[in-house]
Design a protein that fits this description.
By secondary structure, the chain is α/β, with parallel strands linked by helices. The chain contains 12 helices and 7 strands. The chain has a single domain, classed as Rossmann fold.
Length: 288
């Protein structure tokens, strides 16, 4: 996809995500919005066909599992999931759980949500693929608050020791986590220097610039000796004016119909058209 198409896809992911969170009456809008551009490039350009043979099929793990509404939205926006299913998020009779569940959630590679574990699973997948001489690559999206988990740093050491050059970690570095700024809870800096010291190929980018995101993945595919980590500097709540940079929109606030309407206008929907988005009927029309 070209940059204009990626921007359109990212905007769709943001809209779909917020509609599903509103339908669920719970969720994590801030971190969903911050990673939408990364997911657009992954699903628009990078991952390739999910119907590819097992040895060639690239894997993606949403290690920051609470941001799964963006993952489900990316699936729906790229015809991997019926968009009508998005309104069943967190419903007892639905498949789209509040964190990806490999037993019930379509296309999920592993269950995530207990922060720190997704990275370890990604390491295992990457090592297994290499031992079988598979061409498949493995991608894992991490939250920056998640970087405070000890298991992450064990996985980083493991991947560097085994030279897993088929593994790419992406850190959604929006500087905020539940309740407060990272720096006030447990500072991560100098993050890039720490990652280099752990033996990783480090690429720092603007996580909302499609050219930089695409270039970072190109750098990953060209690296043959080390695992790659992309430190994507992002903004929590990106795209929605009243959520951007606000810790309380991590996930502790109910997304009301009024909030959703204001968000959709920020995301390019005419105010007169927001009603069908708020009640979810937009997905019936899209599915026809």
């Amino acid at each position: 996809m070209d940059p204009a198409s990626l921007e359109k896809l990212a905007r769709t992911i943001r809209r779909y995500s917020l509609v599903s969170i509103h339908a669920a009456k719970s969720g994590h809008p801030g971190g969903v919005l911050s990673c939408a551009d990364i997911l657009a490039v992954l699903y628009g350009n990078e991952l390739g066909s999910q119907d590819a043979p097992e040895r060639e099929r690239n894997r993606f793990i949403m290690s920051k599992g609470h941001a799964c509404p963006a993952l489900y939205a990316a699936w729906a926006a790229t015809d991997l999931l019926d968009p009508r299913e998005l309104t069943t998020l967190r419903h007892l009779d639905g498949r789209l759980e509040g964190h990806p569940d490999v037993k019930s959630t379509p296309l999920a590679e592993t269950s995530t949500g207990s922060l720190g574990q997704g990275m370890s699973v990604a390491c295992g997948m990457a090592l297994g693929a290499r031992q079988q001489d598979w061409s498949a690559r493995v991608y894992a999206l991490l939250g920056d608050g998640e970087m405070q988990e000890g298991e992450i740093w064990e996985a980083l050491m493991f991947a560097a020791h085994h030279k897993l050059s088929n593994l790419c970690a992406i850190i959604d570095y929006n500087k905020l986590q539940s309740d407060d700024f990272n720096a006030n809870i447990m500072g991560l800096e100098p993050l890039a220097d720490k990652l280099r010291t752990f033996g990783w190929n480090v690429v720092e980018i603007d996580g909302h610039d499609f050219g930089e995101i695409t270039g970072a993945f190109n750098t990953f595919r060209a690296e043959t000796e080390k695992p790659t980590v992309i430190v994507a500097h992002t903004a929590k709540g990106q795209g929605v004016s009243f959520m951007a940079g606000k810790p309380n929109w991590h996930g502790s606030i109910l997304l009301t119909a009024e909030d959703l309407g204001r968000s959709l206008v920020d995301l390019g929907i005419a105010e007169s058209d927001t009603a069908e988005w708020i009640d979810g009927s937009i997905f019936e029309r899209i599915a026809q």
